[in-house]
Each structure stands twice: as structure tokens, then as C-alpha cells.
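Researcher: We're teaching a course module on how sequence relates to structure. For the next exercise, students receive a sequence and then see the predicted structure as C-alpha cells, so they can try to spot secondary structure elements on their own. Here is the exercise chain.
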Amino acid sequence: MSFRSAISDKSEFDNLFPRWNKLEPNVQKILHSQASFHSAKKGTILQSDENHCIGLVLVNSGQLRVYMMSDEGKEITLYRLFSGDMCLLSASCILSSIQFEVIVETEKNSNFWIIPSTTYKTLMAQSLPLCTYTNELMSARFSDVMWVMQQVLFKSMDERLSEFLLDETNREDNEILKITHEQIAHHLGTAREVITRLLKYLQDENAISLSRGIITIKDRSLLEERVHTPLTE
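Model: And here is the predicted structure for the students to work with:
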């Protein structure tokens, strides 16, 4: 593995694990004994085709990105994970209905627990609360993926870019974004040249300003207007 084990307080695990108080005591005990705590630096690949089905990932701190990559190397972000979120697709081998590969990468320095896939699958068969939660989580992640598909199919790239910039400022609570054109292209599933062209247009509109590796939001209202009134293509 390209990430390292670390020491953690199990009480943090209890506080973050969804529906912990509804789980049976024996299930809690097994999860305590089997979950391992890890840390990884920004940019670490936790799961890929080469490192498949690492187990359920429960995020303690940091930020993870779950994405798909085409044969040509084009990426698109499916969703992101934050503190208290669990990644089900990192244990896709226990879900017979999942037929596609995803990559899980740390977007920030992150700490997380990993629950072995076989352990979780066994516990799902024994615990109704855990099984119910897992089905709800699967449904939520499916909705996330469908939202991405809707964006790709029915929205123009300038709409998606403007919405992405607004979402990023809300997520980071900062009008100054440290992000490259290439990174945005990976999130939105397009070419860097397309993002560069649209960012320059937004800069000409005085909605943003650009410098190397930094995008500063100057007028949120202009971005919000662009979300609802895209460019004519």
C-alpha cells in the first residue's frame, strides 16, 4: 500500500461511524478489532486497478476524491468524501451489482480507517442496521453519479465550470482557490484547453482573476448568472 498505518483513538471511530449506536454490541466489537487506521499525503492513490478493493474507507480528516478514468486517460470526478464519510466503492468486490472501476485519491493530507471487505460483507449478513445503512449509502452514491451524468449530458461546460467554482469557494470558505486548469479539467471530464479558454472568458467578464495556480473570485453574481445563462455554443 502507498499509505502508512497510524495510531488512533477508537472513540473517534465510534463517533464517526454512521449509525454506531444502532449496531449490535458484537458487531461493534468486530469493527473495533478489524478496522485499521492510516494516513496518506495529498495525491496518494488509495485504490486503482492495481490496488483493487482495499475495503471500506471511513474518513477521519482530510478530503478524498472518487473518479473514473477513460482508456484515453480522461478523468471525471464522481464525488468527494470528507470527515465522517464512508467510501463504499473502495470495497466494490463485495457488491455484485458494481461492474465499473473507480480510483480513490487523497486531495488533501488525510487520515482514515479501513475495514476489510470480507469483514464488512460478513457483518452485513448478520446486522440489519448495518445492511440498511449500506443500502442507503449505495443509493446516495448512485444519486451522486447520476447527478454527474445529468451535468455532463444536459449542461454546457461554461455552466458546469461556473457552478464548480462557486461550489469550491463554498467548500473551502475562501474566494481564492489554489487549483490548476488541469485539475479542474479532471474534475469536469474535459480537456485543459477548454477550461483555459472558458476561464479567460470569465476573466474578461471580470468575474474572476487568474494567476499561476490560483483563481480569485471577484464577482459571484456574474458566476451565478452564468450558471443560469450559459454561453451560446
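Model: If you want an answer key for the exercise: The CA atoms of residues 88 and 134 lie 8 Å apart. The two ends are 45 Å apart (CA to CA).
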